[in-house]
């Protein structure tokens, strides 16, 4: 029986670069170690799968893994852009009250994730400094790092394409789903929302936005 050497939980928050981070982690480990890597979405995960590394993606930091994860990485993004991205995907509730509740829940979850994660990637780092983000993840994983190596991982992940259609909703290897990759810049994504919705989010999440530099 194969003994799992390391378990990595990628619990990036929704619409915050979590799938990019998941693909970076699994690719980095495979390239750096040459060892077997089993990577899966939490609902598909089988703890008995033979591989030296298990990489599990979830949107919750309290996802139960037995035994628990050795390393936890996460990601966070401007909550206004998160809500705008959900609207673009057609996943946003029609009721504005429900939208505000969702924004508040995101903020609360981001704070909980930050307390347990070994590394929290800012979405903006993925956009503007992807090589630095990859280097940070490699360091947290305790694997060899170099700019050249990290850049190669970035190129590989950026070349991944979302499926045009899929019967199960997403690609089981990359976890990308149809329409997954759209406008990535926060300002563009926020413009999906009405000014009144943006104003309400800014009101209820004001302290979090300021604390995280999203002024």
CATH homology-level superfamily: P-loop containing nucleotide triphosphate hydrolases
Strand order of the largest sheet: 2-3-1-4-5
Helix count from the secondary structure assignment: 9
CATH top level label: Alpha Beta
**Biggest sheet character:** 5 strands, parallel
Protein name: Sulfotransferase domain-containing protein
Organism: Sphingomonas montanisoli
Report what the structure shows.
This protein is an alpha/beta fold. The chain has one domain: Rossmann fold, CATH 3.40.50.300. Helices cover 46% and strands 12% of the residues. It is built from nine helices and five strands; from the N terminus they run βαβββααβαααααα. A five-stranded parallel beta sheet has the order 2-3-1-4-5, with helices on both faces. The chain is globular. The model has no long low-confidence stretch (mean pLDDT 90).
């Amino acid at each position: 029986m194969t003994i799992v050497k390391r378990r990595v939980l990628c619990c990036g928050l929704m619409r915050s670069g979590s799938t990019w981070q998941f693909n970076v982690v699994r690719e980095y480990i495979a390239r750096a170690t040459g060892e077997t890597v089993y990577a899966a979405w939490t609902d598909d995960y089988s703890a008995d799968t033979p591989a030296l590394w298990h990489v599990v993606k979830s949107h919750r930091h309290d996802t139960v893994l037995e035994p628990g994860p050795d390393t936890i990485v996460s990601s966070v993004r401007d909550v206004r852009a998160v809500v705008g991205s959900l609207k673009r995907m057609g996943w946003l509730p029609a009721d504005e009250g429900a939208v505000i509740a969702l924004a508040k829940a995101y903020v609360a979850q981001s704070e909980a994730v930050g307390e347990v994660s070994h590394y929290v990637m800012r979405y903006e780092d993925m956009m503007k400094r992807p090589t630095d983000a990859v280097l940070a993840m490699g360091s947290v994983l305790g694997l060899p790092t170099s700019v050249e190596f990290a850049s190669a991982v970035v190129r590989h992940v950026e070349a991944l394409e979302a499926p045009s259609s899929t019967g199960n909703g997403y690609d089981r290897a990359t976890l990308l789903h149809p329409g997954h990759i759209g406008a990535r810049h926060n300002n563009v994504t926020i413009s999906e929302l009405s000014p009144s919705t943006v104003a309400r989010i800014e009101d209820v999440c004001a302290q979090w936005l300021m604390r995280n530099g999203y002024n």
